[in-house]
């Protein structure tokens, strides 16, 4: 069964409350498939997505521990921190997906990846999304921008953001949306350089540890 994205007529609040307003009516998915290389810390991670006339609303809630966040710059190595990620391939051309990687402090890395096959340590074909292109995004986190030293105690945090459809349309044509339209996506949690690294996904990722596997994406559908 695909994950169904409900439509909203009013924007849901971006205030760190995972259940406020229309967030409470969104379908919830679990990011609970931990890669075999993960350690013994398996945080509970949930995600919700809604859409309106102008774009997508994405929310994550994490029951975490060993939380660390040191990257504060745009396009920095956020996956090394306590981080949640949304990789999505909208309907349209050319083939390619966006990797929204955002750490618990709200710093983001974002590329449009046409081919994830590695070439000299980087993707074979991708564009680094510019700061200007994401200027209409809104990102809200319940954690400080920087968390160092690491918080060893159990810590809950929420990340919410808005992505305008115009961002997708900068890179793809014929971006479909609306009832019955299907995209492909995966949702992730990682913390590469914390004391308890782990890698979790919504749709299972098998074999080599890499989130850049569009063949492991699953269907999300506009309801």
Model description:
The chain is mostly beta strands. The chain has one domain: Immunoglobulin-like (Sandwich). Helix content is 2%, strand content 44%. It has 1 helix and 17 strands. The chain has one helix at residues 165-169, and strands at residues 3-7, 28-30, 33-34, 44-51, 55-64, 67-69, 83-89, 97-103, 108-109, 111-119, 122-128, 138-141, 147-151, 155-164, 182-190, 199-201, 218-222. The strands form 2 sheets. It has a 15-stranded mixed β-sheet that branches. A hairpin with a 2-residue loop joins strand 10 and strand 11 (122-128).
Report how far the terminal alpha carbons are from each other: 13 Å
- Helix content percent band: under 10%
User: How many individual domains?
Assistant: 1
**Shape field:** globular
Computed CA radius of gyration, to the nearest angstrom: 16 Å
Structural class by SSE content: mainly beta
CATH architecture: Sandwich
How much is the average pLDDT? 96
The CATH topology is Immunoglobulin-like
Major sheet attributes: 15 strands, mixed
Q: Please provide the count of β strands.
A: 17
Q: Enumerate how many helices there are, as a single number.
A: 1
Poorly predicted spans: none
Beta-strand content bin: 35-45%
CATH class bucket: Mainly Beta
Element-level helix/strand string: EEEEEEEEEEEEEEHEEE
């Amino acid at each position: 069964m695909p994950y169904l994205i409900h439509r909203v007529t009013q924007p849901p609040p971006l205030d760190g409350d995972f259940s406020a307003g229309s967030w409470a009516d969104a379908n919830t998915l679990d990011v609970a498939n931990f890669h075999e290389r993960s350690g013994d810390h398996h945080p509970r991670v949930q995600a919700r997505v809604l859409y309106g006339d102008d774009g997508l609303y994405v929310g994550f809630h994490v029951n975490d521990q060993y939380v660390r966040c040191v990257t504060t710059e745009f396009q920095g190595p956020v996956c090394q921190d306590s981080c949640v990620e949304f990789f999505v391939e909208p309907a349209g051309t050319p083939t390619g997906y966006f990797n929204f990687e955002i750490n618990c402090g709200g710093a983001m890395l974002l590329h449009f990846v046409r081919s994830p096959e590695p070439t000299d340590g980087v993707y074979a074909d991708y564009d680094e999304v510019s700061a200007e292109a994401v200027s209409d995004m809104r990102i809200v986190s319940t954690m400080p921008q920087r968390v160092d030293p690491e918080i060893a105690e159990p810590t809950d945090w929420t990340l919410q953001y808005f992505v305008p459809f115009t961002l997708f349309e900068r890179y793809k044509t014929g971006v479909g949306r609306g009832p019955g339209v299907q995209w492909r996506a995966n949702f992730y949690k990682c913390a590469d350089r914390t004391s308890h690294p782990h890698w979790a996904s919504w749709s299972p990722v098998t074999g080599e540890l890499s989130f850049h596997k569009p063949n492991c994406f699953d269907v999300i559908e506009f309801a």
